[in-house]
């Protein structure tokens, strides 16, 4: 046994590593060579980098067993600034000289078992030197574990305590050990890092490690030699890499590499001597940041003698920026800020004394000090405030900037508190607000750096809150809560709860808006104490006694805390039981919005909401806009690990039809961090009362007291509390509230008074006019913003690596204005005088904005900067100099400006990236190398093939071939590797305005590194320049002025320079056509053909064959020139106009109403068949009779029959088409064959042939017209693009309007089986849109003998309308507006643009035309726009432009009708020809359409729709839902049952019997119809009641008792409507209305309704007025109507059986009675007078019965509490139960004759208690409800023993 144990022990000992802990002998000295360098740049070669290298020798000698002396000998610094790796490091004597003075001093350090302890150095040693020593010693830090060769641990190093892995390999033969150490810089327990300006960016709990944009790692390699005296480090190498990916791109990274090498040179046997100087301990290896951070990494400046430097810099800024921005202004401003950071408070005071009397110096100094952010700067601002040195505006700008930008630490917080509490700040409410909010932000930043927030920092804000509560000051409460919200400390929760009624009984009187602020103050606290906040908020959400707005805000804040699934399920459970639909809708929509979120930090809450939504009723998704909603829009790009989300919280209150509060916020997510970028909120309360206030004294009316007494008679009734008018808004940036505004009742009343009262208006106008006369000049330059972000980490060399970003924004404005009013304004000036005056203004305004941005990465110390820098700047200057003359009497405005005299840069943007090296020794010199060198284009892909010497002659013989092949190579390689062609971009776009003598140019120059890698970072690297420049253009004559003249009214016609109607050109074209015609007549010997075709041909354009001429569009009817046109011509035109109708794509309604969408797109069909267009008219006319007899064409030669015969004539041509073997089924599939498709649609077009089947008419026509089939089809095809025009020229609706429903049957029979069975269900996109016009005015076939004398109603109306409606409005109307923009030239020639507007808005068919023309003599360019309402169901618009408005065209049409039996509207957009630039933009946009449609929930179907047309059909399937079909050229998108935000009414249809042209009711009345539909309507018909909230219930009124039907329950008590059963019959009612000083009764009597006013019978048409408010009563139908808009009653109607009342929108939430509250709360509709909800409709109705005194009235019923007759066992105790709500009972002395069961709640007490049910005793209606039971309520009584004496 002992042997076994001994063997095991020996084995274990043998397996142990020998002691390899490195160390140094205390009796020896060791000499090492050391080299360490840092390089910054992109990882690719041949790009510029910047860096620094330190070379030296180290001598380590022992002082004691574990203490050693370190001496650095011959340190040498070298800079690197060049192209890597071609260039070399260069020696820098300046840096060496500055740093070696401290590095060459001796240092001590503790070292034991490979671990470095404390480091000692000379006193006052700079931090940079100590940190370099730490970097050197960090290289020899090793942790050896004797039992393991591979292990991991958290090891302390220069970068903190980080995760480290060791691998040890031993070579026992040679006594050598290799150690590899890797350090993960991303996984540190205590990471050394310094950040500035990132306090409001929060790390996300999800995937923090994976998504960091800055990542780092370090690898160390050691070679150890085992000696007798111990283990010695012979070589150590470290390599560290930090990479930053600004856009989270895997390959778009910038890299900082740091490397160290330590090599043993010599070991000496000598002792080290302790240094003579005193040594100070500087701690361990952990990197120490200096107390004052290095200068900004964009420049190095001298900081000695800061006072003198600040004065010099101020002088430079002021003197060089008087006229314009100097190029170096951003640098100088940053330099000024940097100098102020080094200056003490006394220095700043001294500078202030020198500058305080110089406004410009003073302004720049204050801006710089405010941006400094130091304690001394804050002291300086405080002393300025206390000594009252600053004006109000200067204080308002300086104080908040200083507080928000100050560095938050233990020094600045007390100073900031002292500043905020100073008396000067406290006196001014606005200053106190911005200062307190700024202070709270300082505390927030300070407390975010510490584990606990000191009480002293919070005390000023807590004191403010306590004072506000004790004094009841609402303004102080709001300010305190917003400050607490900015701080976000859990210690403030107790203060917040004091403002919430649920937690504090004293808070019951606190207004709702303060309670909302209290809940919002919990938002930031939830980041630190999530569970506590969630606990309070869920209680608030579940408490139904609180205001809905308060509860909704609690819900919003809960979801911001990212609750887990259990809490979200609890919220869903609350919403399930919720009776308030506002809250339920808000919760549901918030959950639904979050469930769709794709941002990583919302993954958990998104999935939880998806589960919880299953619990909630989907009906909540169907609620209208009246209910509160949450809208969330967001996106996440996984490639870049970035995303954004925008939330809009819409909260409605019951008292408004529109949102009472809207909060919108934008959050950004990037690389594992999230920030609340911007948030803004607006809340409105009681504003409708202020707006609708008409100074009507409702409280003085006689009915006011009567209504109040009636209210008191109702148990528990209270008038609604008066809303305090309030408008509040706030603005947050990065989660910190910067400012808010609170406009209360007093301010609102003053504003309304100022607007309404003429005296105030006149004084304001007087002041304005006085300032205008006096003129004035001002100049202002102000820094607007300074942004600074810095992130610093140490490298292994001990030098800091800094990532920083700086941005400045500077604004400048120079203003000079002078004015004159003629005639001069007199002393008793009236505003009406201005309307008779001429105002002249001369102004010169020069606003400009200069924004500069810097981003740097590299080493930044107080001695030197070696970094990569990216700079971008934008300079905007908009000089505006003009003279204006405004003549209001003549409605003329004339503005003159100088033309372009010299090149003016409006916007200049430049961007460049370079490697930069700076050092303090050479301040004026900085080395810069562009990161992308000029020869970077040398790329192997770009190199041409070089043949060998023997074949070199080919280089010269075929150079073209070589260049062509190279070009081809580039294009083929471009997708794989973008090369130089993509690296350098140049683009210039100029818009020349010759007539104004200038051109506007956009130029872009760009060189980037995207040829290396196509990432955003590589695109930033390089040089970019963008300019928008105004350049003068040489013209024939000099331009003196540019003039813009606007003339409105009747004088506009006299100003027109160029005639709009271009008839002369058109006539010229006609003459040319006639010449050609004459020649062809001679050649062919044909005359009749051209006579017939002349009318049609006249409408075509010569070159394009697609566009109509300006002349024919604007009016000159060709009928006047060719009066001999016959019905044959008409039939030809009509046939052609209905040609290109493809059954595959056209819908019956389109063919009928919208033939102008004829498919001009099918150019191939048109060109094929156009050759014989003339001949086809003969065949058409020969078959125009109903039976297709050829004789009819000769008879119908009168022009009046053209339209009636056109439909029939087209039929024969279609028949002949089919006889010529043109298959209709194939034509439906191939729409390019327009001849057959048009013929088929035409063949079924005439409704009047219904007596015959279509097929029979086809057969009957075959024999007569088969010969002409081919020519007819070609004719109809050739003219298909002009159908719209031909229809209008003929003054009729043409055949396309006679296309009938039969087309549908033909279509279905020939195209597909889907349409052949009508009973089969259709997909929504397969239905056809049918226009309303065709349904209301169907075509009717007339006998031949009536054709000339009459027509159908539609035709006659259309003919009449066309005849009376000119093409060109200028023929009947004068222009309403004329605008001219032109240059005034020396040669007096006119050049420029003219805009003329004609409008006819008073007609039943409103129309507007706009013409823009070029006034230059040689130019024919014009733009023509026309928008018109054709009839009640159709509106059209088009836009044409180009030469004589012929080159391009876009048209649109809106038609109402039916779609799948639902009312619908169709919008159609056509673009026959558009410019290529427009097409390219549209194509780019079109790519996103399918994706956007998918995101919006649309279904998609690939379809071959017309190529140049888009249609949108919206069908109203219910007032709240619609079906949508969108037909685009390649796809059809559709969605069923899309929810609408508000209910839409379906307008009344026009009777088909009406002969008059219909009015434009659909377009004019649609807005008012929607508005009317929103108004509350209540009706009572027989026993059916429909409330304002559209809740219906049946209720039988007890006899002889008045019910409160509808009442204004606000404090105004404007009106009251009561109803009771009439005595005459069971179903008849009588109503009583109290309003104003009048009491109106409407009673049925003898089959009519009798009107009584104040008890006396009155005529049925009467007008009554009460102190400023009027009402009207008139008879309507069988009843009476009352209108009293001033009281809130839009209309009241009563006919004895039916009662209807419609109240104004502003009465929402103010009503009560049987008609409900009009608050959209359907679940709470049965609200009784005491505010409780009744169990059923009967109890609800009974509660609103008005009791009457015994014997005086007919009502013998009383409300009384009752006792349950039976005994009840409640929880095992015998109990007596009493009702908690009153029940109807007959009065004393009466017995019930009729009862009705009602459900009532009961409160129970023990049976042996002394409680009894007597009046004036315990109020059981205020007790809790223990049980429910059904009892009988009395509704009719018999009164024989009634005692009238009481």
Q: Secondary structure elements and their pairing?
A:
Layout: H1 2-15, E1 29-42, E2 47-62, E3 67-84, E4 90-91, H2 93-103, E5 107-112, E6 115-122, H3 127-138, E7 150-157, E8 160-171, E9 176-191, E10 194-196, E11 202-203, E12 214-227, E13 230-244, E14 254-268, E15 279-281, H4 306-320, H5 329-342, H6 345-355, H7 359-372, H8 375-386, H9 392-405, H10 412-420, H11 423-427, H12 429-447, H13 455-471, H14 474-487, H15 493-497, H16 512-520, H17 522-528, H18 530-542, H19 548-560, H20 565-576, H21 581-595, H22 603-613, E16 629-637, E17 642-651, E18 661-670, E19 673-685, H23 687-692, H24 702-713, E20 726-733, E21 736-743, H25 745-756, H26 758-774, E22 776-794, E23 800-822, E24 838-860, E25 864-877, E26 880-887, E27 892-897, E28 904-919, E29 927-930, H27 954-957, H28 959-973, H29 980-983, E30 984-993, E31 998-1008, H30 1016-1020, E32 1022-1032, E33 1039-1048, H31 1052-1055, H32 1063-1084, H33 1088-1097, H34 1110-1114, H35 1127-1137, H36 1148-1153, H37 1163-1169, H38 1176-1182, H39 1192-1195, H40 1202-1219, H41 1224-1229, H42 1234-1243, H43 1254-1265, H44 1269-1278, H45 1283-1289, H46 1302-1310, H47 1313-1316, ...
Antiparallel strand pairs: 1-2, 1-14, 2-3, 3-4, 3-5, 5-6, 6-15, 7-8, 8-9, 9-12, 10-22, 11-19, 12-13, 13-14, 16-17, 17-18, 18-19, 19-20, 20-21, 22-23, 23-24, 24-25, 24-26, 25-28, 26-27, 27-33, 28-29, 28-32, 30-31, 31-32, 33-35, 34-40, 35-36, 36-37, 37-38, 38-39, 39-40, 40-41, 41-43, 42-45, ...
Helix pairs in contact: 4-5, 4-6, 4-7, 5-7, 6-8, 7-8, 7-9, 8-9, 8-10, 9-12, 10-12, 12-14, 13-14, 14-16, 14-17, 16-19, 17-18, 18-19, 19-21, 20-21, 20-22, 21-22, 25-26, 33-35, 35-38, 35-40, 35-44, 35-45, 37-44, 38-40, 38-44, 40-42, 40-43, 40-44, 42-44
């Amino acid at each position: 046994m002992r042997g076994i144990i001994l063997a095991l022990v020996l084995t274990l000992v043998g397996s142990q590593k020998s002691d390899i802990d490195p160390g140094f002998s205390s009796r020896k000295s060791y000499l090492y060579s050391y080299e360490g360098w840092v390089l910054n740049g992109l990882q690719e070669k041949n790009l510029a980098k910047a860096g620094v290298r330190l070379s030296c020798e180290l001598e380590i000698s022992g002082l004691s067993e574990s203490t050693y002396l370190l001496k650095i000998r011959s340190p040498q610094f070298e800079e690197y600034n060049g192209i890597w790796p071609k260039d070399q490091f260069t020696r820098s004597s300046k840096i060496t000289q500055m740093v070696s003075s401290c590095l060459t001093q001796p240092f001590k350090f503790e070292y034991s078992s490979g671990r470095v302890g404390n480091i000692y150095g000379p006193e006052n040693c700079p931090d940079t030197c100590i940190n370099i020593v730490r970097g050197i010693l960090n290289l020899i830090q090793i942790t050896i574990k004797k039992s393991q060769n591979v292990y991991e641990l958290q090891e302390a190093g220069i970068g903190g305590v980080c995760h480290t892995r060791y691998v040890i390999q031993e070579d026992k033969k040679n006594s050598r050990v290799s150690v590899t150490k890797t350090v993960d810089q991303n996984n540190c327990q205590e990471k050394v890092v310094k950040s500035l300006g990132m306090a409001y960016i929060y790390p996300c709990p999800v995937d923090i490690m994976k998504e960091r944009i800055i990542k780092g790692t370090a690898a160390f390699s050691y070679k150890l030699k085992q000696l007798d005296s111990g283990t010695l480090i012979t070589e150590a190498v470290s390599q560290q890499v930090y990479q930053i990916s600004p856009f989270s791109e895997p390959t778009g990274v910038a890299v900082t590499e740091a490397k160290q090498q330590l090599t043993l040179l010599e070991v000496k046997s000598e002792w080290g001597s302790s240094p003579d100087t005193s040594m100070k301990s500087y701690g361990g290896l952990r990197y120490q940041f200096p107390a004052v951070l290095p200068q900004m990494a964009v420049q190095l400046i001298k900081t000695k003698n800061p006072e003198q430097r600040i004065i010099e810099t101020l002088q430079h800024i002021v003197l060089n920026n008087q006229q314009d921005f100097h190029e170096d202004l951003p640098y100088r401003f940053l330099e000024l800020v940097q100098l102020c950071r080094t200056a003490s408070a006394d220095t700043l005071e001294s500078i202030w004394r020198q500058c305080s009397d110089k406004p410009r110096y003073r302004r720049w100094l204050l801006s710089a000090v405010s941006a400094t952010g130091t304690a001394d700067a804050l002291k300086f601002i405080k002393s300025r405030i206390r000594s009252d040195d600053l004006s109000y505006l200067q204080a308002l700008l300086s104080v908040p900037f200083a507080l928000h930008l100050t560095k938050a630490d233990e020094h600045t917080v007390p100073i900031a508190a002292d500043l905020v509490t100073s008396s000067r700040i406290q006196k001014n409410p606005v200053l106190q607000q911005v200062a307190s909010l700024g202070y709270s932000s300082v505390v927030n930043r300070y407390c975010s750096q510490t584990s606990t927030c000191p009480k002293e920092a919070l005390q000023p804000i807590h004191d403010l809150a306590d004072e506000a509560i004790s004094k009841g000051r609402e303004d102080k409460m709001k300010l305190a809560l917003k400050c607490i919200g900015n701080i976000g400390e859990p210690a403030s929760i107790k203060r917040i709860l004091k403002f919430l009624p649920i937690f504090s009984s004293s808070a019951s009187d606190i207004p709702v808006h303060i309670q909302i602020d209290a809940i919002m103050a919990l938002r930031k606290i939830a980041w630190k104490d999530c569970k506590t906040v969630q606990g309070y908020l869920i209680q608030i959400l579940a408490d139904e006694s609180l205001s809905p707005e308060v509860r909704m805000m609690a819900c919003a804040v809960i979801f911001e805390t990212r609750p887990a699934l259990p809490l979200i399920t609890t919220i869903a459970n609350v919403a399930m039981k919720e009776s308030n639909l506002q809250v339920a809708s808000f919760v549901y929509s918030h959950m639904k919005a979050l469930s769709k979120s794709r941002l990583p930090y919302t993954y958990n809450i998104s999935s939880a909401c998806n589960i919880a939504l299953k619990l909630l009723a989907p009906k909540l998704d169907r609620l209208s806009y009246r209910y509160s909603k949450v809208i969330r829009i967001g996106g996440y790009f996984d490639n870049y690990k970035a995303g954004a989300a925008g939330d809009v919280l819409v909260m409605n209150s019951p008292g408004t039809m529109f949102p009472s509060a809207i909060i919108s916020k934008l959050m950004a997510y990037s690389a594992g961090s999230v920030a609340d970028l911007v948030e803004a909120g607006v809340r409105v309360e009681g504003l409708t009362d202020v707006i609708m206030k008409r100074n009507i004294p409702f409280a003085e009316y006689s009915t006011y007291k009567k209504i109040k007494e009636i209210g008191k008679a109702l148990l528990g009734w209270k008038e609604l509390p008066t809303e305090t008018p309030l408008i509040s808004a706030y603005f947050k940036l990065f989660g910190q509230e910067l400012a808010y505004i609170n406009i209360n009742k007093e301010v609102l009343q003053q504003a309304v008074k100022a607007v309404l009262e003429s005296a105030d208006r006149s004084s304001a106008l007087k002041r304005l006019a006085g300032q205008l006369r006096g003129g004035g000049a001002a100049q202002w330059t102000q820094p607007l913003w300074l942004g600074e972000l810095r992130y610093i980490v140490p490298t292994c060399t001990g030098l800091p690596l800094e990532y920083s970003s700086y941005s400045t924004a500077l604004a400048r404005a120079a203003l000079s204005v002078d004015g004159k009013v003629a005639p001069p304004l007199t002393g008793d000036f009236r505003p009406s005088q201005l309307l008779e005056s001429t105002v002249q203004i001369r102004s010169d305004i020069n606003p400009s904005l200069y924004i500069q941005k810097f981003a740097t990465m590299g080493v930044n110390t107080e001695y030197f900067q070696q970094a990569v820098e990216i700079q971008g700047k934008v300079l905007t200057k908009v000089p505006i100099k003009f003279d204006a003359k405004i003549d209001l009497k003549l409605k003329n405005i004339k503005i003159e400006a100088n033309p372009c005299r010299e090149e003016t840069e409006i916007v200049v943007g430049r961007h460049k990236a370079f490697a930069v090296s700076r050092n303090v020794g050479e301040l004026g010199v900085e080395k810069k190398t562009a990161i992308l060198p000029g020869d970077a284009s040398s790329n192997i892909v770009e190199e041409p093939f070089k043949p060998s010497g023997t074949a070199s002659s080919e280089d010269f013989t075929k150079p073209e071939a070589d260049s062509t092949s190279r070009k081809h190579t580039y294009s083929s390689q471009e997708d794989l590797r973008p090369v130089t062609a993509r690296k350098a971009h140049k683009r210039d776009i100029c818009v020349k305005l010759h007539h104004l003598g200038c051109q506007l140019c956009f130029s872009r120059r760009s060189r980037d590194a995207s040829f290396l890698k196509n990432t955003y970072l590589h695109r930033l690297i390089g040089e970019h320049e963008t300019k928008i420049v105004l350049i003068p253009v040489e013209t024939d004559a000099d331009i003196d002025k540019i003039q813009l003249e606007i003339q409105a009214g009747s004088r506009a016609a006299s100003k027109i320079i160029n005639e709009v109607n271009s008839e002369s050109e058109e006539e010229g074209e006609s003459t040319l056509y006639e010449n050609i015609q004459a020649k062809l007549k001679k050649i062919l010997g044909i005359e009749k053909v051209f006579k017939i075709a002349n009318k049609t041909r006249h409408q075509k354009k010569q070159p394009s064959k697609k566009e109509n001429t300006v002349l024919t569009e604007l009016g000159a009817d060709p009928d006047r020139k060719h009066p001999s046109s016959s019905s044959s011509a008409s039939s030809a035109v009509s046939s052609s106009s209905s040609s290109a109708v493809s059954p595959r794509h056209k819908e019956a309604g389109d063919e009928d109403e919208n033939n102008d969408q004829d498919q001009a797109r099918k150019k191939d069909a048109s060109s094929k068949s156009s050759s014989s267009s003339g001949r086809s008219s003969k065949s058409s006319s020969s078959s125009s009779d109903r039976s297709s007899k050829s004789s009819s064409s000769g008879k119908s030669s009168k022009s009046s029959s053209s339209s009636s015969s056109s439909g029939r004539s087209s039929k024969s041509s279609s028949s002949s088409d089919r006889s010529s073997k043109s298959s209709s089924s194939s034509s439906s599939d191939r729409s390019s064959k327009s001849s057959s498709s048009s013929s088929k649609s035409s063949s079924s077009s005439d409704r009047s042939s219904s007596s015959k089947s279509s097929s029979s008419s086809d057969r009957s026509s075959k024999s007569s017209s088969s010969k002409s089939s081919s020519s007819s089809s070609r004719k109809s095809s050739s003219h298909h693009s002009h159908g719209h025009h031909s229809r209008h020229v003929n003054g009729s609706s043409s055949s396309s309007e006679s296309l009938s429903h039969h087309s549908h049957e033909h279509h279905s029979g020939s195209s597909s089986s889907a349409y052949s069975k009508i009973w089969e269900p259709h997909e929504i996109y397969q239905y056809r849109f049918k226009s309303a016009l065709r349904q209301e005015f169907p075509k009717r076939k007339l006998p031949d003998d009536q054709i000339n004398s009459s027509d159908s109603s539609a035709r006659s109306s259309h003919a009449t309308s066309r005849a009376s409606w000119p093409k060109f409005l200028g023929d009947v109307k004068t222009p309403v507006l004329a605008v001219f923009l032109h240059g005034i030239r020396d040669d007096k020639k006119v050049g420029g643009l003219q805009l003329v507007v004609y409008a006819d808005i008073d007609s039943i068919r409103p129309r507007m035309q706009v013409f823009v023309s070029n006034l230059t003599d040689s130019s024919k360019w014009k733009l023509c726009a026309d928008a018109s309402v054709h009839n009640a169901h159709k509106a059209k618009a088009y836009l044409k432009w180009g030469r004589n408005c012929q080159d391009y065209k876009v048209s649109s049409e809106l038609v109402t009708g039916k779609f799948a039996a639902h009312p619908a509207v169709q919008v159609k957009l056509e673009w026959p020809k558009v410019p290529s630039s427009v097409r390219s933009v549209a194509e780019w946009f079109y790519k996103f359409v399918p994706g956007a449609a998918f995101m919006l929930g649309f279904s998609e179907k690939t379809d071959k729709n017309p190529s140049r047309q888009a249609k949108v059909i919206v069908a109203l399937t219910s007032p709240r839902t619609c079906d949508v079909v969108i037909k685009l050229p390649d796809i059809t998108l559709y969605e069923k049952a899309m929810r609408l935000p508000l209910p839409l009414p379906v307008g009344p249809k026009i009777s088909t019997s009406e002969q008059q042209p219909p009015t434009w009711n659909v377009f004019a009345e649609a807005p008012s119809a929607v508005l009317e539909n929103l108004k509350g309507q209540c009706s009572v018909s027989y026993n059916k009641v429909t409330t304002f909230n559209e809740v219906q219930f049946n209720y039988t009124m007890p006899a002889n008792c008045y019910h409160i039907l509808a009442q204004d329950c606000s404090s105004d008590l404007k009106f009251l409507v009561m109803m009771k059963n009439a005595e005459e019959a069971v179903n008849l009612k009588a109503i009583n209305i109290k309003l104003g000083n009048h009491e109106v009764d409407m009673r049925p009597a003898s089959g009519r309704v009798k009107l009584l006013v104040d008890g006396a019978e009155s005529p049925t048409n009467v007008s009554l007025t009460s102190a400023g408010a009027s009402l009207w009563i008139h008879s309507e139908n069988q009843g009476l109507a009352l209108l009293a808009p001033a009281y809130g009653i839009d209309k009241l109607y009563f006919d004895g059986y039916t009662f209807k009342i419609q109240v104004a929108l502003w009465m929402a939430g103010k009503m009560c009675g049987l008609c409900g509250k009009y608050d959209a709360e359907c679940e709470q509709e049965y609200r009784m007078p005491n505010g409780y909800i009744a169990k059923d409709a009967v109890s609800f109705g009974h509660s609103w019965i008005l009791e009457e005194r015994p014997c005086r009235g007919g009502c013998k019923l009383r409300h009384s509490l009752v006792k349950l007759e039976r005994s009840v066992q409640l929880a095992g105790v015998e109990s007596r139960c009493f009702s908690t709500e009153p029940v109807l009972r007959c009065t004393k002395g009466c017995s019930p004759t009729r009862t009705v069961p009602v459900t009532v709640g009961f409160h129970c007490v023990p049976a042996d208690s002394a409680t009894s049910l007597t009046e004036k005793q315990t109020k059981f209606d205020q007790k809790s409800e223990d049980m429910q039971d059904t009892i009988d309520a009395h509704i009719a009584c018999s009164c024989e023993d009634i005692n009238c004496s009481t």
